[in-house]
Design brief:
The chain is of the alpha/beta class. The chain contains nine helices and twelve strands. The protein has two domains: 135 residues, Major capsid protein gp5 fold; 140 residues, 2-Layer Sandwich (hypothetical protein PF0899 fold).
């Protein structure tokens, strides 16, 4: 067969839905890769290995240091061994979650690739939202609270910056870096040396911060207009939020599942971990004559744990005590 010039994406051989379902591994593999790329928890927590038999055992607030420092040795002296106190033992268990995808014979016969794409996108989004919800719930339940001030300040600037978003972040960051092994108020000597690097905000609160007078007045300093986050920020407030994060050396994550009256400040990769008993897996396509459809089933057995809860704080009251965010 003679070759011919291809001048657009519509030229050349076309892959039909029928071609995709003929190989029972193509669609499940694509679904698995799409879903794994969307796990929000992996941006905040570290991988904690495998949860054998569904059990996750960990030590909470374990000191990163030995009890004693290295000591000076004389000739022929025996080198002392390291001893260290262990944290409080906790045990949690994995849970199994799953969701499947169905492709009807009608979709295949009519080559409705758009419908297949939408169904796969819905599956991916549902897994991602579920993972995000579990992560937000774990952080909200496991971290100590710090009472903040109203960040939803759009009409006039706060009279005292110590009682603004800047003051709340500065004090919360100090409390995390001042955390120690012995106490809960930071008065101990053996500091844990945490370095908060991640701020998690409700998506709508992040957008409202685009209009926050404290941020606009304090971060837009100088005579160059493009330094003003109100002028160069997108509709999601990304520039204003990133400017705020940069002022404190923070990476900003957003989630519309987080209470808009709460912000989470933590050291990502230290505050906690996730562990799989059975990683995400989608079964090969199978055809069921009773429904004239192809099926693939995805499931995962996993769990999360916060083994260093002092590496994070939840800042409450940032929406004035209101737990919803209405339109303007």
């Amino acid at each position: 067969m003679a070759d011919y010039a291809k001048v657009s994406s519509d030229d050349g051989l076309r892959v039909t839905v029928n071609d995709l379902v003929k190989d029972p591994l193509v669609i499940p593999k694509r679904a698995e890769e799409d879903v794994k790329d969307q796990f929000w928890s992996q941006r905040v927590l570290r991988r904690g290995g495998t949860a054998e038999s569904g059990v996750i055992k960990f030590m909470e607030s374990e000191s990163p240091y030995a009890d004693d420092d290295p000591e000076e040795l004389q000739e022929f002296s025996e080198i002392p061994l390291t001893q260290a106190k262990r944290g409080q033992v906790h045990v949690t268990f994995t849970k199994r979650y799953g969701r499947g995808l169905r492709i009807s014979e009608q979709t295949v016969r009519r080559n409705n690739y758009d419908q297949l794409s939408m169904d796969m996108a819905k599956l991916k989004n549902s897994f991602a939202r579920f993972d995000e919800n579990l992560m937000v719930s774990a952080l909200t339940a496991g971290l100590s609270s710090y009472s903040g001030h109203n960040w939803n300040v759009t009409s006039t600037a706060t009279a005292d910056l110590a009682n603004s978003v800047f003051g709340d972040l500065a004090r919360a960051s100090f409390n995390i870096t001042n955390a120690d092994v012995e106490t809960t108020d930071g008065t101990g000597r053996q500091k844990l040396r945490f370095k908060p690097d991640t701020l998690i905000l409700n998506t709508q609160m992040a957008a409202r911060l685009l209009l926050n007078r404290d941020i606009i007045n304090q971060l837009a300093v100088g005579n160059v207009a493009n330094r003003n986050p109100l002028l160069n920020g997108g509709s999601d407030g990304s520039s204003a939020v990133n400017a705020l994060g940069a002022a404190f050396g923070l990476n900003v994550e957003t989630s519309d599942l987080l209470d808009p009256d709460t912000a989470i400040l933590c050291e990502a990769g230290t505050v906690g971990f996730w562990a799989d008993e059975k990683p995400l897996y989608f079964s090969p396509l199978e055809f069921k004559a009773a429904t004239r459809s192809w099926y693939t089933y995805g499931d995962r057995s996993w769990g999360v744990a916060l083994d260093q809860p002092k590496a994070g704080l939840k800042i409450t009251g940032i929406n004035g005590g209101t737990h919803t965010m209405a339109n303007f």
